[in-house]
């Protein structure tokens, strides 16, 4: 149960040492977005939002409370689709997802209107946690901040990297690798950070498990000394968006 100002890095170190373990070279920490948002003070009361004309219309179209509609608008760069099932928004960070990432599950006070917003800059959050882990342990692990997101062509959600530091986000194998029959790969770009986020999210669970961090080992080939470009580098450029 994380609260504003708490240290995620110190919590990770405390739990590991309590188990007689510590971070190792090549480790990757997959961290649930919710605890990052909590320590960054991103819990808000919906009553704090004053709906404008656009929010009132969005609420009418989607059967939502006007205050929730205003919160989504405030967190979004663009609304792409608006239906009762979901408001698909481009978050200010560039990620496209339902309701601009605003959620009430596993949030204390949700029954009274408290919701949780995404970190303002998830990549910056990942870099900060990585720096603190290095100061505490001397190890520079990969850090992934993960949230569950839907996919355009599939049913269900999957853990996705919304913030990343020290980890390859995309492994581009086009023109550099061959298949079993010697044909050069032409279109293969592996979403490494998303794949690891998905694996970590499966281990953490999405209900009352109370496990907000997963430690991934055996994927050190993708961990680097530099923080790297972050999860934002894995976003499809808007001019390539096939759904616009």
Automatic annotation (TrEMBL):
Domain Coenzyme F420:L-glutamate ligase-like intervals: 3-218
Pfam families on file: F420_ligase
Span of the signal peptide: none
UniProt entry keywords in alphabetical sequence: GTP-binding, Ligase, Magnesium, Manganese, Metal-binding, Nucleotide-binding, Potassium
GO MF assignments: coenzyme F420-0:L-glutamate ligase activity
Domain of life: Bacteria
Enzyme Commission code: 6.3.2.31
Protein's name in the database: Coenzyme F420-0:L-glutamate ligase
Coiled coil: none
Native species: Novosphingobium mangrovi
Gene3D superfamilies cross-referenced by the UniProt entry: CofE-like, CofE-like domain
Cited NCBIfam families: F420_cofE (TIGR01916)
Keyword Zinc recorded: no
GN (gene name): cofE
InterPro entries: F420-0_g-glutamyl_ligase, F420-0_gamma-glut_ligase-dom
